[in-house]
Amino acid sequence: MGIQAAVQAIETSKAQSAEKRRQIELALEQARYEAAHAQRQYDAVDPDNRLVAGELERRWNAALAVVREREAELDALETKKPEALSEAERQELLHMGADLERAWHHANATSVTRKRSIRTVVREIVVRVENDRIEMVVHWQGGDHTTLSVKKNKLGHHRWGAAPEIEPLIRALARQLPDKAIAALLNRLGKTTGRQNGWTQSRVCTFRSQHNIAVYRHGKRAARGEYTLQEAAEKLGVRAMTVLRMIRAGHLPAEQYLKRTPWVIRGEDLVRSDIQHYANSGMRRPLSQGQDQQPMLFQ
Question: Domain map of the chain by residue range?
Answer without folding.
Answer: 2-79, 99-151, 166-210, 221-280
